[in-house]
Amino acid sequence: MSFETIAPTSVYSIKQKDLQYLLHFPENFPFLYYIMKRFGVHYYLKSLLSMRTKENVLIQAIFNICFLRHPDFKQLDRILTLPKEYTASRIKEYSTLSQAGFYKHLKQAYNQKLLVKSADGLQVDLEKMEELYPSTFPNKDF
């Protein structure tokens, strides 16, 4: 198997039989909790994409990427810069939108100044995103 990642990543390969064996021991709970918490956050954010109208899927996808990249983004500057590796095609893959729909909504995001291209990468204006699409931001920390 080969994996392509944008950021440094740890990949764990655990067979189901081994995982079932590990679940029998309470001392392994912190390790399993850490893994399941990371999966849980990712799956929760990914599930939000299916709950959005097509007009809001791209905005939710960009929010998800920002959150997964910087979980403490509320403490950061409200303009978050994603590295150059986050290209339009990668964001399109994550959003699962059709090509025509994706580029239509991407153009709209650029026109609304939610996204700005810079030399460092794609800049996301989280303050404007929260103002225009308040349902994208969770009401509480998760």
What can be said about this structure in brief?
By secondary structure, the chain is mostly helical. The protein has six helices and three strands, in the order αααβααββα.
Description:
By secondary structure, this protein is mainly alpha-helical. The chain contains six helices and three strands; from the N terminus they run αααβααββα. The protein has helices at residues 16-22, 29-51, 54-69, 88-95, 99-111, 126-132, and strands spanning 79-83, 115-117, 121-125. It has a three-stranded antiparallel sheet. Helix 2 packs antiparallel against helix 3 (54-69) and helix 3 (54-69) crosses helix 5 (99-111). The longest helix is centred in the N-terminal third of the chain and has 23 residues, at 29-51. The chain starts with 15 loop residues before the first helix and ends in a 10-residue tail after the last helix.
Series of H and E elements = HHHEHHEEH
Please count the helical segments: 6
- Overall mean pLDDT stands at 84
Spatial sequence of strands, sheet with the most strands: 1-3-2
Structural class: mainly alpha
Number of DSSP E strands: 3
Query: What distance lies between the first and last C-alpha atoms, to the nearest angstrom?
Result: 32 Å
Name the beta content range: 5-15%
